[in-house]
Amino acid sequence: MKHFIYILPLCAMALTACDLNQRAQEQAQHERDSLMQVINERDTELNDIMGSINEVQEGFRLINEAEGRITVANASPEGASSREVIRENMGFIQQTMQENRNRIAQLQERLRTSNINVSKLTKTIENLKAQLEEQNVRLQELTAQLAERDIVIAAQSEQIDTLQQDVKALVEDNVSKENTIATQDRNLHKAWFVFGTKAELKEQKILEKGDVLRSKDFNRDYFTEIDIRIDKEIKLYSKNAELLTSHPDGSYQLVRDAQKQYVLHITDPQKFWSTSKYLVILVK
Fold first, then answer.
1. Is 67 helix (H, G, I), strand (E, B) or coil?
2. Better-predicted residue by pLDDT, 132 or 203
3. Contact by Cβ (8 Å): 234, 216
4. N or C: which end of the chain has fewer CB within 10 A?
5. Where exactly are the structural domains of the chain?
6. Which CATH class is domain 17-188?
7. pLDDT tens, position by position, 190-221
8. For the chain, how big is the Rg over CA atoms in Å?
9. Residue pLDDT, tens place only, 3-46
10. Which residues have CB under 8 Å from 157's CB, separation 6+?
11. Residues near 217 by beta carbon (within 8 Å), at least 6 away in sequence
12. Furthest C-alpha separation in the chain
């Protein structure tokens, strides 16, 4: 009976351990499944993007072939068949360039909202835009040659002008979007810091009654703006320094320089600025 009493707790402990082990395995499997789903989604998105890029490049190839057919037909434009070949291929080029322009615009918008690393893809899209512009220049030159022989009718010339205006508008729109994105990116990585004596911080209403940044009208112009991706070292020019704002431990170091004055080293910027984009340091 005594042995039985001792065995019961042991059995219970064994069952608990088994249950915990099973739950851990289930959790690990769930995490692996979630990770595989993310990877598959990114792969699908990347494949779709690459497919669109291939379509644009195929469009460029077809345009080059059409330009070749026009060049051959233009060598002897007197016949009706040559004129028809030129008209058909000019129309084909205009349509294909329009399709390529639309695809490039869609690719740019997709990359802007994508979660994948788009630095190399962005460069590829810029190259496609450059190729589109080169083909547009060639089309203008070809149109001028054909116009000299009265082959391109007025309606086609108007379509080409419209295409040129659309390309220009697309370029201007892309520049505007890129500037907006760059501005938003800078704003996301802005932070502000200030260091000063207790009297100086009180005078700017940054420190009031022992509390930091409690006043709604503290002097924001007294702070220095920085880019948290770039500015990771702040010289404090003081032998006494104390952070008044809250920043996670392990994300920074206060070290002394050769003059025994403190320098703040931000070792983990994302973690350091996660609690506040304002840094206040008390020096003496």
1. helix
2. 203
3. no
4. N
5. 17-188, 190-283
6. mainly alpha
7. 999 999 999 999 999 999 988 899 888 899 99
8. 33
9. 545 565 555 565 555 555 666 566 655 555 545 554 545 656 67
10. 143, 147
11. 205
12. 116
